[in-house]
Amino acid sequence: MKRLNLGKLKLASEEVLQRSQMANIYGGSGGQGYTCYCRDQEATTSKTVVASTTEEALNAMYPPCTHENPPHCS
Questions:
Q1: Helical H runs in the chain?
Q2: How many domains is the chain partitioned into structurally?
Q3: DSSP label at 1?
Q4: Which residue of 18, 38, 45, 57 lies most exposed, with the fewest beta carbons within 10 A?
Q5: Residue 18 covered by a domain
């Protein structure tokens, strides 16, 4: 497999993910998948969230959810 040289991309510092952010995307650090959703008057928004706890999964749903329309995760 060929190694990529990310230095040649000349990315700005805000475009580079930190190790902890990558763990959340990939699902590392012992996280599991939760299916979360929130309902508003127009539609239901749902997504799969990778988190270590249900509380982390619920917090990841703000936005699009609001305190008036809280998320539900399973």
A1: 19-26, 54-59
A2: 1
A3: -
A4: 18
A5: no
What confidence tens digit (pLDDT) does each residue in 22-31 have?
655 554 455 6
35 in Cβ contact with 70 (< 8 Å): no
Q: Which domain holds residue 39?
A: 30-74
Stated pTM of the model: 0.49
Would you say how long the chain is, in residues?
74
The answer as to whether 5 is a domain residue is no
The amino acid present at 8, given as its one-letter code, is: K
Instruction: Give the contacts of 60 (CB within 8 A, at least 6 positions apart).
Output: 36, 49, 51
Q: List, as one string, the DSSP characters of 6-59.
A: GGGG---GGGSPPHHHHHHHHT-TT-EEEEEEEE-SS-EEEEEEEESSHHHHHH
Of residues 5 and 35, the one with the higher pLDDT is 35
